[in-house]
TrEMBL record:
Cell location: Cell membrane
Entry keyword set: ATP-binding, Cell membrane, Hydrolase, Kinase, Membrane, Nucleotide-binding, Phosphoprotein, Transferase, Transmembrane, Transmembrane helix, Two-component regulatory system
Signal peptide: none
Residue intervals passing through the bilayer: 17-38, 175-196
The UniProt record lists the keyword Nucleotide-binding: yes
Protein name: Serine phosphatase RsbU (Regulator of sigma subunit)/anti-sigma regulatory factor (Ser/Thr protein kinase)/PAS domain-containing protein
Length: 876
């Protein structure tokens, strides 16, 4: 009973909770009753709508309703039916009315023939509807439904209605039951609240609000006595509670409670954490000279006011350990960056620069790299040779260190000299006291010390047994000298860089070898000839040696062959293959073959090379070889061109217009099985023929069509000189670093004038030999070449005699005066004479021997309708 009195008295916390629960339950019961009454009213209205609409539609659609409306006296027919239906359906009225709203039926007969009370417009439009009105029989819900004839026309209306009080009687009968249920619920809730309050009373030991307050004060006193800082911050960032330890650790002002944490003068990291209220576990913050571990949790759980509580623990003794861990992490990051950031290119100098850029300022204030000269050229270092300062980086530009490019010989007592001699790193923590270092250069050493550089680490760049150079790390800004841990880090850093520098050195050596091989295979000087004025350019790729080549080949009859080719790929293999193809072109051109036949032979050769090298697993086949071969005749001014997968030539006419002649594009060399075609170009004297490789017009960043258009524009701007044409083309086409070789030939055509050519037909008569000799003698006299009369007559006598004896008509003789005197005999036979030694008893066989002795060169050239035997003599 005492417990119950305490609960009901409201003096304890349990009693207050009991009263609060009872009030809440009572409010809930009242709300439930009100809600039920409202729901019943809503259901009553809805039921009235549904019933009235159903009755009205049933009556409107009943058989005979339409015929009754059309009868002379609708009321007499419909009134009995309406009343019977009203009684059966338990509605208050069923009224039938015409389209003007005049009643035909009504429960009260005196109202028949009067105007209907309500809205009929929607029904006249053919729609059924319901409405609530205050009618003559009270508040009711009525439905109005149209009556339609078979044609769908509205011929009348039916309205049925029911008052809401007749429908809502159920609610009145249910209300006592609802109130009884509410009373039972209130009793049960009161009993439950009493049980909860009794349990709460036991847990609080019957303490009232004052006793609870006093207990909290004792708890607060204990809280402030612990040696761990406690902070409570509300959800707005205001400091609610801070115990004494928190005040001491954070240096809080006396009036800190009630102020925002951002205004307490705390370090930004700690203040932001406390203001954010985010969860933190052992988060370390440096506050003054203390290292605090902060734990923070939110308090908005289980009904606790929103906010956060943070605890602070002094972890200053962990500061040194944390610092060492951070240093180790930074060093690991730097070594990782060295692995991915050093050696991005195969250039020795650039790799050395990447090392210096990585180490400054993360590890040292200045870093220098000195390499042996042989290393820069790709060779093996010489321990007694001088070094060159290859790279240097620093936090300032005015340091008195040796500049880049300076050649240095380190004395044996210097740290660099000792590193090079022993292959081990050297630490000089205090340069001002290192006499051996100062012996390197007394004046410069003094300048360095005066400048403020005070500590040095030198590490040799070692690749296996080779010492490539030395790296020096200089400290200037940080006053603490280098230590042994940093010495180990420097050694690891340089070791990783040494691998990349050695790779770059090896690549440089191989690249130099390939360039040397390639240049040795390319023409060094163009041969003398008078048909073309030629200028050329050859630029190797920056990334590696390719297989582009070109050639100028003098042919018989003052003709000149131009050839450009390309072996796809880079390196020694491409250069060697290029040399083989160039040699083959030289040999095939000596046979005076037409361009299409020469290209076909070259295609067959490449196919055999591919087959041989495919069988050798250590070799790669020649893939992507292309070639363009052109022969220009200065007499006819005709150029015959054939190409195998090569870009088309460009032609600059004497008026400066540029075109790309339509030369049939054969397949690349080595595919085989397909014929090659030629194009005949008639070139006016002074035209410029431009041959090139695809490196000039193709690039990763542009399409070949764009490159051809750029080439066209550049050729249109060039002067008539082939040299100027080459210069303008390369200036406009090249990127900063070409990814492929470029070969370019510009040939301006010349023509032999009519006074340099003499030609005579030869009758099929041995006596014609004398006429030919006489004609040649007269022509040589006109040219002022009387010294060559005897030898020329003898050469032509032998050649014409052979043509008459072994060849076939027609026979022609042509003499050309160019750089040499050229004699040519044409006949229709395809049989070529051969040089041989005649025995003492032979009557013939000595003619060609005499020709070979008198002429500088001689040979046979085949034509579609015969052959030409020619001989050249040097002009006096």
């Amino acid at each position: 009973m005492a417990v119950l009195r305490s609960v009901l008295g409201g003096r304890s916390v349990a009693g207050q909770v009991f009263l609060l629960v009872v009030v809440i339950v009572l409010l809930l019961v009242v709300a439930a009753v009100v809600a039920l009454v409202l729901q019943v009213r809503h259901d009553t209205t809805q039921e009235a709508r549904n019933r009235s609409l159903a009755v009205a539609e049933t009556f409107a659609n009943a058989p005979g309703t339409v015929e009754a409306l059309r009868s002379p006296d609708p009321s007499a027919v419909l009134q009995p039916r309406a009343e019977a239906a009203r009684v059966a359906s338990k509605v208050d009225f069923i009224v039938v009315l015409n389209t003007d709203g005049i009643r035909y039926t009504h429960p009260k007969p005196d109202r028949i023939g009067k105007k209907f009370v309500g809205t009929i417009a929607p029904a006249l439009a053919g729609k059924s509807f319901t409405e609530e009105i205050d009618g003559t029989i009270g508040r009711l819900v009525q439905a109005v439904v149209p009556v339609k004839d078979p044609d769908g026309r509205v011929v009348g209306l039916v309205s049925a209605g029911i008052t809401t009080k007749n429908v809502g009687g159920t609610a009145d009968r249910q209300l006592p039951l609802v109130l009884a249920a509410a009373a039972i619920a209130l009793a049960l809730a009161t009993a439950g609240a009493a049980l909860v309050s009794r349990r709460l009373l036991r847990q609080t030991h019957g303490l009232g609000p004052h006793e609870m307050t006093r207990m909290y004060e004792h708890h607060d006193a204990v809280l402030h006595a612990v040696r761990e800082g406690v902070l409570i911050v509300d959800d707005g960032g205001t400091l609610v509670l801070a115990n004494d330890e928190a005040h001491r650790l954070l240096g809080l002002p006396a009036d800190a409670e009630g102020r925002h944490v951002l205004s307490l003068g705390l370090d930004p990291g700690t203040a932001d954490l406390l203001a954010s209220g985010r969860v933190a576990t052992d988060e370390v913050h440096l506050v003054g000279d203390r290292l605090l571990a902060v734990n923070q949790r939110t308090t908005d759980r289980a009904g606790v006011p929103p906010g956060s509580v943070a605890t602070l623990r002094d972890s200053t003794e962990l500061r040194a350990l944390s610092g060492r861990a951070e240093t180790a992490r930074e060093r690991l990051n730097m070594l990782y960056d060295a692995g991915v950031g050093i050696g991005t290119s195969l250039d020795v100098t650039r790799t050395a620069e990447e090392l210096t850029e990585l180490a400054v300022p993360r590890f040292a204030d200045f870093v220098t790299v000195d390499l042996f000269d042989a290393v820069l050229g790709g060779g093996q270092p010489n321990a007694v040779a001088a070094l060159s300062r290859t790279a240097m980086s620093g936090i300032r530009k005015d340091a008195p260190l040796y500049p880049v490019g300076e050649r240095i010989r380190f004395v044996e007592s210097s740290p660099q000299g000792r590193s090079l001699a022993t292959g081990s790193p050297v630490l000089e923590p205090r340069l001002s006291q290192a006499t051996g270092w100062q012996a390197q250069d007394l004046e410069r050493s003094a300048q360095i010390v005066t400048y403020g550089i005070h500590s040095l680490i030198t590490v040799p760049l070692r690749a296996g047994t080779l010492v490539l150079g030395v790296v020096s790390f200089w400290r200037y800004e940080k006053q603490v000298p280098f230590d042994t841990d940093e010495l180990a880090l420097a050694e690891e850093l340089v070791t990783r860089a040494a691998v990349s520098i050695d790779n770059a050195r090896r690549y440089t050596r191989e690249h130099s070898m390939a360039v040397t091989l390639q240049r040795s295979l390319l023409p060094r000087n163009l041969p003398e000839q008078g048909a073309l004025e030629i200028a050329y350019r050859y630029l190797p790729a920056q990334a590696g040696v390719g297989g582009d080549w070109f050639d100028v080949l003098p042919l018989s009859g003052a003709r000149v062959a131009l050839v450009v080719g390309d072996v796809v790929g880079h390196g020694l293999h491409a250069a060697a293959t290029m040399g083989r193809l160039r040699t083959a072109v030289h040999n095939f051109s000596a046979l005076d073959l037409p361009p299409e036949e020469l290209i076909a032979l070259l295609d067959e050769l490449v196919g055999r090379i591919d087959q041989d090298e495919t069988e050798d697993e250590g070799s790669a086949p020649v893939t992507g070889a292309t070639c363009l071969y052109a022969v220009y005749d200065p007499v006819s001014r005709r150029c015959t061109v054939a190409r195998a997968g090569h870009p088309p030539p460009a032609l600059i006419h004497p008026d400066g217009s540029v075109e790309f002649p339509d030369v049939p594009a054969g397949p690349p060399l080595g595919l085989g099985g397909l014929p090659f075609e030629t194009a005949e170009l008639d070139l006016a004297e002074g035209s410029r023929l431009v041959l090139y490789t695809d490196g000039l017009i193709e690039d990763r960043e542009r399409d070949i069509d764009v490159g051809l258009e750029m080439l066209r524009e550049a050729l249109g701007r060039a002067d008539e000189s082939p040299e100027d044409t080459c210069r303008v083309v390369l200036d406009s086409q090249l990127t900063a670093r070409s990814s492929d070789d470029i070969a370019l030939i510009v040939a301006r055509t010349r023509a032999l004038s009519a006074d340099q050519v003499a030609e005579w037909p030869v009758p099929a008569d041995p006596a014609a030999v004398g006429e030919v000799r006489a004609a040649v003698s007269r022509q040589l006299a006109e040219w002022g070449l009387d010294e060559l009369t005897f030898s020329t007559e003898l050469i032509l006598s032998e050649l014409v005699t052979n043509a008459l004896r072994y060849g076939g008509g027609p026979i022609r003789v042509r003499v050309l005066r160019d750089r040499n005197l050229i004699c040519e005999v044409f006949d229709s036979s395809s049989t070529s004479p051969h040089l041989r030694y005649a025995t003492m008893t032979d009557e013939g066989g000595r003619g060609l021997f005499l020709v070979a002795q008198l002429a500088e060169r001689w040979g046979t050239r085949y034509l579609p309708a015969g052959k030409v035997i020619w001989a050249e003599q040097p002009l006096p």
